[in-house]
């Protein structure tokens, strides 16, 4: 049996609803709708034979993972390597405000976030290094079965780019990752195989139609 890694983005927060930058420097709570997203995932996937459940060290990810952990009686393992990218001075700001205050840094970052970091923030390549250390830990601990990792928008997309051989500098433009979505990668003898990208069928139509990212 191959190892299958489920990458779940946390539920809605106020900042994801407003589409503002929210990285490892901020840790907003889930909104009531975000909590519903977490519960919906737990309801849909509680019968999966989970070998382990990991999350980032941020509360919005931990609280997204908690319902499924409680449902099946498994201990959550938090790993800071799964934390969101650090946005530095951009934390909490809208894209429009960042472009106004930090125009040069913002334009450079849009072109290639693997070579240009947010002002005072983190390169995409740095995120890749720390997140993939967690993936390697998971692979060493679990040779097969299903493992869940609850993380964040940029981090999940960066991880997928590295695993699938996509230029990490294009992570913002090649892969979607809305709140509450799950992507599934199977580790086969030929390498990582993307089975599902950004699925949200476990969410109600109402939750899927909410504004934000």
Key descriptive features of the protein:
single chain; alpha/beta; 6-stranded mixed sheet; 9 helices
Layout of secondary structure:
Elements: E1 3-9, H1 14-18, H2 32-45, E2 50-55, H3 59-72, E3 76-78, H4 95-101, H5 103-111, H6 124-141, E4 145-151, H7 153-164, H8 171-174, E5 182-188, E6 191-199, H9 205-208
Parallel strand pairs: 1-4, 2-3, 2-4
Antiparallel strand pairs: 1-5, 5-6
Helix pairs in contact: 2-3, 4-5, 6-7
- Poorly predicted parts: none
Spatial strand arrangement across the major sheet: 3-2-4-1-5-6
The helix-and-strand class reads: alpha/beta
What is the count of β-strands?
6
What Rg, in angstroms, do the CA atoms define? Answer: 16 Å
Please tell me the overall pLDDT: 97
Helical stretch tally:
9
Range of strand content = 15-25%
- The outline comes out as globular
Give the biggest beta sheet: 6 strands, mixed
Compressed to H and E, one letter per element, the order equals EHHEHEHHHEHHEEH
Distance between the termini: 34 Å
What does this entry look like structurally?
The protein is α/β, with parallel strands linked by helices. The protein is 41% helix and 18% strand. It has a 6-stranded mixed β-sheet, with helices on both faces. α2 packs parallel to α3 and α4 packs across α5.
């Amino acid at each position: 049996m191959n190892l299958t890694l489920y990458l779940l983005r946390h539920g809605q927060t106020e900042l994801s609803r407003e589409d503002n930058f929210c990285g490892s420097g901020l840790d907003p709570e889930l909104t009531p709708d975000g909590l519903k997203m977490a519960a919906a995932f737990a309801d849909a996937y509680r019968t999966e034979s989970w070998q382990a459940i990991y999350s980032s060290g941020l509360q919005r990810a931990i609280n997204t993972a908690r319902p499924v952990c409680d449902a099946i009686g498994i201990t959550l393992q938090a790993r800071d390597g799964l934390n969101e990218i650090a946005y530095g001075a951009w934390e909490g700001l809208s894209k429009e405000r960042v472009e106004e205050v930090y125009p040069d840094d913002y334009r450079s970052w849009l072109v290639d976030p693997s070579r240009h970091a947010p002002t005072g923030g983190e390169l995409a390549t740095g995120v890749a290094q720390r997140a993939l250390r967690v993936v390697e830990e998971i692979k060493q601990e679990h040779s097969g079965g299903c493992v869940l990792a609850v993380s964040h928008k940029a981090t999940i997309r960066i991880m997928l780019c590295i695993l699938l051989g996509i230029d990490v500098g294009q992570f913002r433009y090649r892969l979607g990752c809305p709140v509450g979505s799950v992507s599934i990668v199977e580790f086969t003898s030929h390498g990582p195989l993307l089975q599902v990208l950004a699925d949200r069928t476990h969410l109600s139509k109402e939750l899927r139609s909410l504004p934000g990212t």
